[in-house]
Every structure is written in structure tokens, then in C-alpha cells.
């Protein structure tokens, strides 16, 4: 079927209108009319080939909320008209150890990502949510609980799950002391989710202007990372630090802030560190540095249900599809409160 979307044609071109083919429904597929799609910093990294490996044209977008238009003959979980969501993955091998454990993001045979991936059956490229419709196997489609703002729920599918997964893995709960580095899309969801789990949460930011927002989002304290006095005052405090910084940065200032046996989990920057890591504070306090990738399908549904129960959604700025290039520039300046979401009804109205 022919669908409309927006794509980057090269690392230096703007995101622009693009029509392309999606597969006809297989028996276990769901056809979804996309209502809203969040704008993740990973969309920008991929469109501009920051990580290498982007295949053009690329249609970004992996924070998708929509309505079921049609279901394949064997689909059992979803029906026409239902509000559903799709995150960063649309398939995986389904039989490896990790897939069986519900950790499809770590599929030993590589998960199929929502964009810049390759369909496991027909080898066609996967195209993401900057488009009017998407076809996804029902096992990778999530249910959206009633009562949540549909535009604001979209970022839960990546920004939310990427911070929820480490919060759950490191067993954050009442009384835990958690710090979040960087108040952007991921960071603001981390504050909300950690607070809702009962933790005492601190934001570590370069931006003093974000302090009031951070408190409103759940932080009890704000530390400016460039202020050595403020950083020293929270030495040894945190059991878990979630670092969402998207660029190369130094980790050495953050390690001393961990308590004994604490963990700094990296979810933002992908690549080599520029400063050598000083192992002394790690060894002297049995501290860990870890990484974490999005979350599995069962965990993503758990998060959506948690958001439904607690009334948690993202703080968003809704944009038209044709504002996407401007949104990327603003995201690079950390000028977004705190996630852009595309209203997909604006896609075809501009053509
Ligand atoms: P974002 O909205 O742009 O937020 C990033 C925040 O980091 C900024 O608001 C800023 O906060 C801080 N920051 C930016 N540049 C910095 C620098 N040079 N040094 C220190 N702090 C800096 O981005 P996002 O969508 O939250 O994504 C964050 C990163 O996570 C991206 O690299 C993205 O690709 C990655 N990601 C990873 C996963 C995963 O599965 N691991 C999933 C989704 C996204 P302050 O102004 O508060 O300092
Ligand atoms: Zn993302
Ligand atoms: Zn697998």
C-alpha cells in the first residue's frame, strides 16, 4: 500500500515529504493510522548519520500512537478502532534466550527496529512514524490505557521506557536516591517516573533556567553540573544515576556522586569517551558503570499501564509535520519543553 510520510534523503538534507510502499497485511499484522509521533533525539542522530549505518531514505519516528484501521486474519489482541502504540521495535527473532525473557531489545539475532531496519521476512526497509500509516506484527503493538492525552502519551514509547527500564532493573522504589543527568525528553520522563516509584530525585543539569521545571516534574533538588561546590555537596549520595546526555562528555565528575555499590547507567551518548576514566572511585566504592537500551515489549506494556494508573504523560509541544526541521534545530539547542510531538493530521493537509 502507498503511504505518505517525511524522510531524510541524506545526512545533510532536510526532512521532506516522501511517499513509499508498506507491505500488505500478513495474518498477524495490524494496520495503524498514526495520530501522533514523538520526536526523539535518536531520530536526529539517525537522520544525520551521527552513529554511522543510516540507510537512506530514512523515515524516522518511534514514539507512535494511533488507531487500528485493519487487522490480519489471525490477529487476536486488537480490534478495529482501538487506540494502540508502537515503540522502537517492530520485530525480533522471538526464540533466543533474550526474546523468550521479554528482552527483545537485546535479541541475540538483532531486533528489527522501527526505522532504519530490515523486515525479517521480505527484506524491505522499515520506515518509522513520520508517516500516516504503519503495518506492525501484533506482538509488537502495545495497548494504550484509557484516560491519557494521546499526543502526550507518545513519548512514553521511547523516552519513557528508556528510563523506566533502568529504574526497574536497579529496583528503584520508596526511599531510593536517584539522580538524572540532563533535562530533555528522556530526563523529564525519568524525573516523573522515579518520583512516581517513590524515589527521592535530583536533577543534574547544565541549565539553571530549568530548575523550576525540574521541581515541578518531581525533583526535590537541582544540581548545576558546572558548579563544583554544588557537585561536592551531593558526593556519595545516589544509588542510581541515569545519564541522558546525548554528546561526548566526561564521566569522572559523576562517579564520586554514587553511594557505595551505586550504578551510573548511560542511556544517552553512544561512543567512545574522550577523557580517560579514573577507576579509583569505582574500585574504592564497588561502583558500576552500565548501559541500557530502551526496554522489552512486556516492560513497555507494564510502563503504559503504570502511566495509566498514575496519570503520567510527557510534557509536550505539539508541532506540524512541516516544522520538523526547525524542531531538530531547537532540540540541538536544548530548547524544548520537553518533547516535540508531531500531530500527524497535519501531514496530508500540507500537501
Ligand atoms: P534531548 O531531549 O535533546 O535531551 C538531552 C539533554 O541532555 C538536554 O536537554 C541537556 O539537558 C543535556 N545535554 C545536551 N547536550 C549536552 C552536553 N553536551 N553536555 C551535557 N549535557 C547535555 O535528548 P533525548 O531525546 O532525551 O535523548 C538523549 C539521548 O538519549 C540521545 O543521545 C538519544 O539518542 C539517546 N537515546 C537512547 C536510548 C536508549 O535506548 N539508550 C533511547 C532513546 C534515546 P540540560 O540542559 O538539563 O543539561
Ligand atoms: Zn528514541
Ligand atoms: Zn531474539
Model regions low in confidence, pLDDT < 50 over at least 5 residues: none
Looking at CATH, the homologous superfamily of the largest domain is Medium-chain alcohol dehydrogenases, catalytic domain
Domains (count): 2
Using the coordinates shown, work out and report the CATH topology of the largest domain.
Quinone Oxidoreductase, Chain A, domain 1
Shape: globular
Named CATH architecture of the largest domain: Alpha-Beta Complex
Q: What does the radius of gyration come to? A: 20 Å
Let me know the largest β-sheet.
Answer: 7 strands, mixed
Assign the CATH class of the largest domain. Alpha Beta
Question: How many helices in DSSP terms?
Answer: 11
Mean pLDDT, rounded to whole units?
97
Distance between the termini: 19 Å
The quaternary organization reads as single chain
**What share of the residues lie within helices?**
10-25%
Describe the structure.
The protein starts with a strand and ends with a helix. A hairpin with a 6-residue loop joins strand 1 and strand 2. The relative contact order is 0.16. The mean pLDDT is 97. With 351 residues, the chain is α/β, with parallel strands linked by helices. It is built from eleven helices and 17 strands. The protein has two domains: 191 residues, Quinone Oxidoreductase, Chain A, domain 1, CATH 3.90.180.10; 133 residues, Rossmann fold. The strands form four sheets. Strands 3, 4, 5, 8, 9, 16 and 17 form a seven-stranded mixed beta sheet that branches. Strands 12-11-10-13-14-15 form a six-stranded parallel beta sheet. Strands 1-2 form a two-stranded antiparallel ribbon. The longest helix has 14 residues. The protein binds NADP nicotinamide-adenine-dinucleotide phosphate (NAP) and zinc ion (ZN) (2 copies).
